[in-house]
Request: fold
Amino acid sequence: MAKWQGKDGSERANYQMFITELCDVLGVPRPEPAHHDQRENPYVFERRVRMAFGDGNDTSCFLDCYRRDAFVLEAKKVRAAPHTQGFQTAMLGARQQAENYARALPQSEGRPPFLIVIDVGHVIELYAEFSRSGGTYTPFPDTRSHRIALADLAQPQVRERLRKVWMAPMSLDPARLSAEVTRDVAAKLAEVARSLEDAGHPSEQVAAFLTRALFCMFAEDVALLPRDSFRTLLERHIDEPDALQRQLRVLWRDMDTGDYNGALNAQLLRFNGKIFKGHAQDGYVLPLSKPQIRLLLRAAQADWTAVEPAIFGTLLERALNPTERHALGAHYTPRAYVERLVLPTVIEPLRAQWADAQAAALLLASEAQALQHPLDAKGKPKAPTAKQVSQAAKAMNEARATVRQFHHQLCTVRVLDPACGSGNFLYVTLEHLKRLEGEVLNQLHDLGDTQSKLGLEGETVTPKQLLGIELNQRAAALAELVLWIGHLQWHIRTQGAASVAEPVVHDFGNIEHRDAVLACDGQEPALDAAGHALTRWDGVTHKPHPVTGLPVPDEAAQTPQWRYLNPRPAAWPQADYIVGNPPFIGASTMRAALGDGYVEALRAAWPGVPDSADFVMHWWDHAATLTRQGAVRQFGLITTNSLRQTFNRRVIEAHLSDGKAPLHLRFAVPDHPWVDSAAGAAVRIAMSVGAAGTGEGRLLSVSSETAGEHDEVAVALTGQTGVVHADLRVGANVAGAVALRANMGISNRGHELGSAGFIVTPDEAAALGLGREPGLERHIRAYRNGRDLMAEPRGVMVIDLFGLDADAVRNRYPAIYQWLHDRVKPERDVNRMASVRESWWLHRRLRGDMRQQLANLPRYIATVETTKHRVFQFLDANVLPDNMLIAIALDDALPLAVLSSTVHGEWALATGGTLEDRPRYNKTRCFETFPFPADDTGFDPASPLADTLRARAEAIDAHRKRVLASTEGQAVGLTLTGLYNVLEALRAGRALSPKEKQHHDAGLAGVLLSLHTELDAAVLQAYGWADLGEVPGGHSAGSTGGDSSEGQLSARQAWTDALLGRLVALNARRAAEEATGTVRWLRPAFQDPAQRAAAATQSALPLATVAPSAAGSGTDAAGRDTPDGGAALEASEGPEAADAAEAAASSQGAGAQRARQPWPAELPEQMRAVADALQASPSPLSEAQLAERFTGRGPWKKRLPQILDTLTALGRAQATRQGAAAAWRGA
Reply:
């Protein structure tokens, strides 16, 4: 420290020596010698990165010091004195530069958790972003202590903090530090709760009692109650439970009112709020046994200052809820996941506004300093004039007013979580608002302003700004508790306990206990025509069947059905931002979860949301509507990752495509791991952030998932920028592709049985008469599902009595009648649909369309609806497909060739949804929109090329079936999934595992790879797109592989983007032609009405069927395809398939005249306007060129130089040259 004190040499001369000696002081390794290959430079000085600019150019930049997975370090030697405006501006600029460098690092390395900014020999500043997903780096550990002076290195705790930044940076994440403490606390409270419930106390009273107790435990640990006073009270009365009960009632009454308490011998603060109300009521204080007091004392002995509010609410809700307590040790949603949505939704827009306000304030402060310290013509200081002194004071006052104005905005912003649960999203938002407020107040202090005691009587960020709606009463109460504990933690950590004003807790009414999507004037029991109350099976209770012993629904377990009076959408309180995680209930399970009456009322209240959309889409639709209307600035919601599927996506498309007031997606993650808050189960979700207007957004994709600490999944992300479409993709708008008539009426999901009782083994089929009873072979047939095709075949059969009534079944096949009567009928008896109950011997959906489509075909094409690898194959016509297979009624190998190619595989990945992390083939989106090669692409189906395609498809199909059936294949357990895992590894150049080597040899994977490669080349030739070249290495067609290198993925993405763009254009061209009557049918003899009428070659079906049509293709309640067009025992919850409409392509001409925009009136907006103009420009702009972008009155141009200088100093612009003239580009 003595060596470096007062050294004023340049940064370049001294910084490496300073950092090296700092490493020695900290006891960490010094930076290593650098290699030419930057991938070999994990810890070096002068690490080179390529910095891309908004104008499309890039340049090499050098990081002063870099340690992979730890930090980017930017060193400066600031000439200005500490606490001057020049020093503050220089350090802010260095921080922004370091953040820009962190964003420029290769995606494979990820962003480090820390930025270090050093004023050599003087100051070290720390900034952290522990989610490592692109969020803003904030002062660490807080705004009061992130700046470390050189003399502070004498403190061991400071050196240890810096040592961990070098060696174990993620160990400093506060969420990780407190997660274990929080788990332990929740487990102890669960034990107390279980004991009290076992003693006969209602769970609601137990929850309220323990909530009051735990708040006391927190209060004494943060000195809002006398230290250890609550623990002492428990210890003192372990042997006097009755006395403790009386003392607790008095204590909580005194905490509510702020009176003197004799038991604690102290004057208490007035806590107020809801927590301690109702002290005279029964059950307010529960009688405790001696063991229960000891359990409570164990919980009180935990360190409540270290509790993490972001997860405390979830764990506490599980602890206090008897039905969820089993999940207490399960996963919880990591804070980093919550931040991944909260930051882009709420915090980043506010920080962008703060950056503008701060830049404006620093510009004004710089002008004030120049006026106070003027220079003469020779550049020497001179005394300011009285006018200059006055102007300087005015400029400084304006600087402070600018910061105060933003602070006021920050303290009045309102954030709504309309499904807040126990408050984790609201708490994380609150903490980030407090962090930002700390930076604002620091800036205000640096400008010479101070603020009085930051209690609730002053203007400060408080829980009042965090609004919530929650249906679960216990969770709503916990949300308030979590917010106040988090707020008080932060306040005491930064200001001290003495600064807390009374009342400590306010009842702001900011958390509402009610339904967030449905309002009504009341509800009454639903009645039938005779006036009897309607009930339904509760969906849970079972009993053993008297014959089979299998569990069947207990018809005696009934729950009432309700009718909702005047149902309507629920209103939401006014808010600036909306963020949250609505419940995960799929369309197909809504009735079971919510009841028929609720679902009917919901759909009546929300006619614009498709019946087959997930429950969460009611939240999404309402938030999007409010945003488009201007009532909300931005919203961000968690949904299941089925957001991209047809009927969920339709909700999004309606908002994105609105011609008058469109919405655009500012941020999205299409598929991300998540944790269900109640059960702790791992699920897959999507994140989406919407804002009004049109524009580009940021799309993040999960590139890898690894097991982290405390069982959470650590996620690495890669990003793209561009227009984010409704299917959460950037690039070609495949979501805008429309269904083509040429492909309609020949694809369907397979048989939906509605009961496993229809499935039999071959032995069971023989016992039922197969092989003995004439004609039974038409009603017991081979049956295949996705597992049968992709994994190990079950070899099962299915009973299919299509065309027979119950009397016919009983008379002809009595054994089958009894089999179904015992196994299927008990389930059908409790079905809400009369047609399903009454026709219990038939499949739930009759699949009339599909039966007609497949009639007289010797074989058909099938693919599994949800699978890792998109594989198409021929199935014999005698095989009935399960509803998780897509059956395509074509027996020609030519369409099989195209479907098996990478061309269709990429289309299917882009247009289909996902289930968890597996691609889903929605035939309405994947097949019916796909443009096959035809004469307009130069392809002749009778050409030698067509013969080649057929031959390759037949060879691939035969090869797979041969190796799977071979002795070698069966010996090693070869499956199609295993075979295509090997194929994927071969394409990626990845070394095979021992098991994969066995599959490679038994499956002759090299032969299969060569066949697919030749097929891909031939299909591209059929489209006339041979110029795209060979498919780059990486995942197989239609699969989601993760074995490719970063370079392979980049090349593959570029190839795929080009392919999809051409397919989208071809789809639009075909749709336009079809509108004029030109249809290129895939199976004209069956599809073309004229040819079908002329050539009646289809055999009659046992029951009436419908002609194939667009109306025969729909989507069921789960958002999956349905074919019957009404020929189903149970009606589809969803409407018919989306109407075909031509996708409108829009583009901006490169040479279009840019409209001049008005010059903003306020300085912060001027800062934003100039920064945006530089960022949007395709080339650097001179001052004159920049001025031409705006129009205004008065001497507004005079301030442009100062604005440009300030933006450059803050790292938001980069100075360059345009010939001999100075120019600037966006940084």
User: Anything to note?
Assistant: The first strand starts at residue 43 and ends at 52. Residues 325-331, 452-457, 1097-1127, 1130-1153 have pLDDT under 50 and may be disordered. Residues 176-327 form one domain. The two ends are 35 Å apart (CA to CA).
